[in-house]
Request: fold
Amino acid sequence: MSTFSKVTDGATAVADIPDGASIAVGGFGLCGVPTYLIDQVLALPVGNFTVISNNCGLDDAGVGLWLAAGKTMKMISSYVGENETFERMYLQGDLHVELTPQGTLAEKLRAGGAGIPAFYTATGVGTVVAEGGLPWKYNADGTVALASPAKETREFKGRTFVLEEALTPDFALVRATVADTLGNCVFHASTRNFNLPAAMSGVTTIVEAERLVQPGEINPDDVHLPGIYVKRVVALQEPWISDKRIERLTVREPAQSRDEQEGH
Reply:
């Protein structure tokens, strides 16, 4: 068995993230978010990040913490609701935002990890996504300071497609359910979401793992992310392992309570 290991501690794992770095962050909403690594980066004396994430977190959770701390200057995202700090910064001209269709964002990351510089997609054809004009940045007075440019389009078999460029961020932060010391990872159910393409895209990918095992303990057929994509692994301890917030808690009323309300 190999004695080589990619395991390190959290502070060391993020220590070389520089000012102005581009960082892809896995997770969808608050599902599968690398909360520990986000906190480790929050403690660094650097910022001006370009953050690539499906969403911008909440005001007090996820990459929303970087926004609140003034560490993020640009976001490439699909969904930007649920965060008042984001809204205020964007509309006041303090944040550059590139809204990207969700499937396109996932493919931009995956393509970057696969060494594909760009690809054509039908998504966005005939809209401002392809034709340009999306406000990327506002002035303080509410006027548009910078708008998205028009993108190249091309016909294939009588159908129009738009050219989208891949993403290859400097760093990627992801959360795995299980990882071995060589960086092979397993994601539980929907936590795979954006963790997989984000991990593939990063020049330096850092994984926080809820459970750390030795090489050979993960069945090869169960590996979602091969260790070749991973540079560093951080083994989580409590309370971080169970730090899994629910974005919107909705519960059904007990049957007895419903019967009482209906007069049964």
Summary: The CA atoms of residues 122 and 158 lie 12 Å apart. The first helix runs from residue 10 to 14. The mean pLDDT is 94.
